[in-house]
User: Fold this.
Amino acid sequence: MGKPLNLRQQRFVTEYMKTGIASRAYLAAGYKATTRLSLDPLASRLTRNSKVKREIARRKAAMLKRSDITIEKLLSDAEDARKLAMETKQAAAATGAGQFQAKLVGLLIDRKEQGAPGDFQGVKSRDEVMAVIRAEMGDDAAKALEAMLAAKPSPPVSEPAPEPVTPTAQGSDSLN
Assistant:
């Protein structure tokens, strides 16, 4: 199954499970960041490490099993909350319960952008993009992206949009 986690990775996972804050877990595990600005990206990269990710998922699954939380139970509780909110005319609470149910069954998906602006700046070809994805997210992510791209033809590369023209203070284009 591959090499096990090293001691610092194990400590990182333990601290991350306690707090959910990657940068705090990174430091508590004994890793060092050269600057404060480098701490968050380094901690984030460690959370995306395939072995670390797998261990976090394994521990979360074990926690769920111990606490006896199932999707069915969560859906049932959310439906009870939605019905109560409707009976007491609390529309926001009813909407929230409905959205929670939709997320549980995969009808609503929260999306979050990862990486910093400009991470792909300078990457020109499809092969270069795939190399970055493979390096940052692993082979599984790269294979999934390749499969998605194979199913849909890529759009033609377009020229960048021209810079917007700003009116001068003395110009006649002024809205004032």
